[in-house]
Every structure is written in C-alpha cells, then in structure tokens.
Design a protein that fits this description.
Number of strands: 0
Structural class: mainly alpha
Number of domains: 1
Keywords: Signal
GO cellular component, one term: membrane
Shape: globular
C-alpha cells in the first residue's frame, strides 16, 4: 500500500542521509560508510544490497505510478510535490551515475574512493545536490500526513 512504500522510502532516505553525514568526519569515515554499504558485515551486503536496491526501485516506481494516477488533483500542493518528485528522480539518476555506477578503484577490489568522487563534483553539480536535497526534504515532509503516523502506530491525539 501507499503508506508502506512511503514509509520504506522515508526510512531509506533518513538512514542514507545520516550515513552521508560521515563526510563531515573526513574522507576515511565517508569511504568506510560507502564500503559498509557495498560489503556489509561478513560480506552479506554483496547479496542483500541488490535485493534492497531492487525493492527500493520497485517502491519508487510504485510511488511514482500512484502519484501520476492522482495527478488529476490540481491543488497547488499536489503540483509542488509532483515537481519536487521530478527533481528527485533526476537527482537519483545523476547520483547513481556519480557514485553507485562508477567502477572500483582497482579491478577486483572492494575499494572505491567515494570522498574523491564527491570532491571531483563541479560547483554546478554541488549546487544541484543542495537543491535536490532541499527537494527531498520538502517532498518527504509534505508527504508525512497524519495517516502515515497513524498507520505506523503513532496515533495523533
């Protein structure tokens, strides 16, 4: 259902955003976070990550399909969410290209210098990341309706 998909996507965004804050601690912490995502404890993410990515992609596609079906609602808030969703979709494509789909530093290695890739972004790309982060925050916050919280077992009284 729509709420479950939104909850999963919101949880993913929160965890991923917190992980990206490791950049503040320096390149080695950021690269360790990236390696943990790719490899995980005892190498389990080599198998789990593709499953999670597939589920995340299907969830995002279902979320998008549902949003387009409801697009007939011409309320300004709906149009803003649709626009922010389009910005987020473009951001995800660029983000995957910049970080996920880049080859490892050495063939056969599990090392990828994500901090270096991050610092190689142009000023224009960095501004795009900042604007996209704002769109993600707006889109997520505006989607957190009272129904979401009630479904998650947090009655609003």
């Amino acid at each position: 259902n729509r709420i479950t998909l939104a909850a999963f996507l919101t949880f993913f965004l929160a965890v991923h955003g917190i992980g990206n804050l490791t950049m503040i601690s320096g390149p080695s912490a950021y690269n360790a976070y990236g390696k943990f995502l790719r490899v995980g404890p005892m190498g389990v993410n080599r198998f789990v990550l593709p499953l999670l990515e597939s589920y995340l992609s299907l969830s995002a596609a279902a979320h998008l399909f549902g949003a387009l079906k409801r697009c007939a609602d011409d309320a300004p808030g709906s149009r803003r969410k649709l626009l922010s969703g389009a910005v987020i979709l473009a951001f995800i494509a660029g983000h995957l290209r910049n970080f996920r789909l880049q080859p490892m530093d050495e063939p056969g290695s599990e090392e990828k210098d994500l901090a270096r890739l991050h610092h190689q972004l142009s000023t224009k790309q960095r501004v795009g990341y900042g604007l996209s982060a704002a769109a993600v925050l707006y889109h997520t916050w505006s989607g957190l309706s009272p129904n979401f919280f009630v479904t998650m077992g947090m009655p609003l009284e």
